[in-house]
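Here is an idea for our session: we take a single protein and study its fold together. To get us started, please write out a protein record for me. Once you have written the record down, we can walk along the chain together.
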Amino acid sequence: MIERMDPEVKILAGISATLEADYTEDDAAWRGSPFAWIRTRPSRQKGAIGEKLVAGWLAARGFNVTRAMNSEADRVIENNAVEIKFSTLWENGSYTFQQLRDQQYDLVICLGISPFDAHCWVIEKRDIHHYWRETSNLTTQHGGASGSDTAWLTVNPKAVHGWLRGHGGTLREGLAYLSRITGFTPNDPKSEA
């Protein structure tokens, strides 16, 4: 097939082949991961996938999970309006949870997916507001006066911010914190095996 290519296209294809290694090396850590396919999806789809992962995981653990009635939150979990933020692991070893806004929700669940691990932090809205507006532990996402309504949270799971440590970490720790907040005791997955 390459033999029939236009000579100019062949040159471009050769350059492309030499560049490929620079970009596919990053994917090596994700090879064989059950989550690798998520990284190929557009950003908007990744957010929807993250919402479905959280909703499915919590429903599997027995939580009452329903769709939110408006766009101010993503789901209602045990009568709490919940905003769900999702990130795959960045090359620097951190997750970045974007588009945190001052909307009508009670909790934010941040789900981070690594090639063969996952992390979860559950943060109450009042803590989001405090750490963003009063301590600057959350970064304003967009510059300028018009960008002061959106924040992001960057978390390295190997070096978690002190203020965030009690809010989760592993999936089990995030689930335990959510359980404390909601008063709901999740079922044990070992008993279902």
In short: The two ends are 51 Å apart (CA to CA).
